[in-house]
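Limitations

Structures in this collection are predictions, not experimental determinations, and the ligand pose is part of the prediction. Treat each record accordingly. The example that follows, with iron/sulfur cluster as the small molecule, is included so readers can see exactly what is and is not provided: the inputs are given verbatim, and the output is the predicted complex.
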Amino acid sequence: MYAYSEFDTDFIAERNRQFRAQVERRIDGSLTEDEFRPLRLMNGLYLQLHAYMLRVAIPYGSLDSAKMRQLAYIAQRWDKGYGHFTTRQNIQYNWPKLNDVPDILDALGEVGMHAIQTSGNTIRNVTADHFAGAAADEIADPRPVAELIRQWSTDHPEFQFMPRKFKIAITGSPNDRAVTAAHDIGIRIVEKDGEIGYQVIVGGGLGRTPMIGKVISDFVTEEDLLPYLEAIVSVWNVLGRRDNKYKARIKITVHEHGIDEIRRLVDARFAEVKPTFKGVDQQLLAEIRKHFHPPAFRNAPTDAFDQAYENDPVFRSWADTNLTEHKINGYAIAQISIKAHGETPGDASAEQMEVMADLAEKYGHDELRISHEQNVVLPHVHKSDLPALHAELKKVGLATANIGLISDIIACPGMDYCALATARSIPIAQEIAVRFDELKLEHEIGDIKIKISGCINACGHHHVGHIGILGLDRAGVENYQITLGGDHSENANLGDRTGPGFPAESVVDAIETIVRTYLAVRSSADETFLETYRRTGMEPFKAALYPPKEEAKADAA
Amino acid sequence: MPRAFTPKVVTGNALLEGDVIYFTDSDSWTRNLKDAEVITDEAVAQVRLLAAESQAAEVVGAYLADVKVTEDGPEPTHFREDFRRTGPSNYFHGKQAEA
Ligand code: SF4
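Predicted complex:
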């Protein structure tokens, strides 16, 4: 776990002192809301539908038990006893009072956390593969570079007032679990002739104008990476459209100028930037790497695991869905589902957070991760500890065996909280999970990713869901558009719209129709939903969703 | 033909608590839509909005929201306003829990 330097600690303390004074001045009337608003947003404080919301950064989704316990404490002390994990690996508190926020920020500072650059036109929290440092398929741990980028971008003088926000994601595995192609910059660690380097993707993004990023360089060496990133951001900082917020993201710049022209400009800028770096970043990276040494893995028999797997069907089912292969023999990556059927995706109670912190300490080398899929990960658990871990998770409702299945839904807060929403997301996710649980079809359906957003901003990643759902306001009624065939992985793809949207009352039926159609037309039980869709295209799904009679009615309307 | 003016209330969020508040005819704020001042005249609406906005120590982001007048007082016409005066649907939190 990266430990903050003195500089970081002082910087955060100073920022918190400033913000405390700003809150006081807003309350006593010396600051107007127009003056205060940008200041609170710089500190991650939004005003939502029913209350303020504080967004706390969890850099590249990595936590230790002390941080997780503090998050639980904050939820208990100043919020309503829970927190919401987001698709950007952050945590949001939905009910803080303005007066309390300076205390909350101080409490975060005690464990080296903050809410800086979780808002505004800055480089946001760097996200990374949630299996970093653990995955069997990993080329190298992406977190040291993620931390280097965090330090470079935090409070970078050139990058505080950019055309728009800027998001960077990094993966160290060819299996892209970090959705890198949907970020302003996506970085994939690659290996060429025994040398580790970085493939850089630029101009991806979801939202109003979704785009899959394009490769700007296939191989950037380690010492060139930071100057190369700086060159990209700098080219965009000049070219980016400040006149129109809908055209300001780098995806539009890349689209308007073409990737070849952007590459040429970036190369030219890189030639200027590179000499200014003088290798300081490489010394820093070497220093950072020391904080990411792998834990002292144990070499022990796995009999306890084998026995439980053999004899306990509930454990077996959990192990089959929630565990992923670890790079060390005898270890597993355990995902804790924050998607119990009927509950709010990504919401964990203070008690659950405390239990997860305890379990990480006891069985997980004190490491936890937040996934962009809104689950919690214990990246290093010895297999012999898994039965005990599972038993303790069961006690607090955290043993749901549904990772990667139809009830493991990404849902943004939607109109239950978000001021920008056009419709609700959470109740749709809850209903879908409950429906398929009742139908007992979940395991038969297998691999499927449903992603729901409550407006076009696409925080719920609906464009890259195998089934994507977008909530809209159609003449004062909630209406849901469905897309099929999206993919967030290394084969990133945007989904296709099925046709007209569905009202809230029938969208869950529509999802069931789609899934039943898949079960009917798949070539075998091994063909996943996405594979079937790629083979058959939209036709069978469209036919099932919009039977001719209905269509005629719709035409007449 | 100019469209008929729909009745409105002035609403926003409280500065300290962040929760939904409505402006009353006595220039104070209420947490209950029923007690809000219903404005039926366009010119009056702008004046009342300015009066509400001037209370910067009480309210953030004041605006005019459509309502319909019923026997039980003003009712929201749009689902967003209905959620605002109720609270989230996933937990019994917010206004619904305070009533
Ligand atoms: S997608 Fe829209 S509704 Fe959902 S959290 Fe983002 S801005 Fe809010």
